[in-house]
Amino acid sequence: MDHSPGFLALVQAVRPRIRELPATQLAQALHDTPGALLIDVREHEEYLAGHVRGAQWLGKGIIERDIEKFCPDLERPLFLYCGGGYRSALAADNLQKMGYRQVCSVDGGWRALQELMPVEK
Questions:
Q1: Does the active-site annotation cover 82?
Q2: Are 68 and 99 a contacting pair, CB within 8 Å?
Q3: Which of 34, 73, 85, 103 is the most exposed place for a label (fewest CB within 10 A)?
Q4: Which residues contact 91 (CB under 8 A, 6 or more apart)?
Q5: Total of domains in the chain
Q6: What is the DSSP letter of 4?
Q7: Which listed residue (11, 82, 92, 106) is catalytic?
């Protein structure tokens, strides 16, 4: 997918402020982090077409609005993924601004994860 220069610049601006994890390390990170939530921030149609087994859907368009009801614990570890790691980076930055302290964006996103982890539709 071709992303616009403005969108790419926005993502690059947040990357120094967030924690990113390569997709190849997600399974181990989830195993090593009891209570962590895996959140798919893609569009709902993308989630329904296929997602990592056990991932919860909270799309980028609504995550900031709904996260406090979904996960009121600001200390709970959250792993976010999207298609490639761009939307999840932006969502991670916003959640940190909202007070969440253990947020991580999965670099590589769904495009990498579907080859690395069990998936479901």
A1: yes
A2: no
A3: 34
A4: 41, 60, 63, 64, 80, 82, 105
A5: 1
A6: P
A7: 82
Report d(CA 12, CA 15) in Å as an integer.
Answer: 5
**Does residue 9 sit within a domain?**
no
3 state SS for 54-99:
CCEECCCCCHHHHHHHHCCCCCCCEEEECCCCCHHHHHHHHHHHCC
pLDDT given at position 2? 84
Q: Which domain holds residue 74?
A: 18-120
pLDDT of residue 118: 97
Q: Average pLDDT for consecutive 10-residue bins of the chain (121 residues)?
A: 90 97 98 97 97 97 97 98 97 98 98 97 89
- Tell me, what amino acid is at 24? T
Residue 30 belongs to domain with CATH number: 3.40.250.10
Domain presence at residue 36 = yes
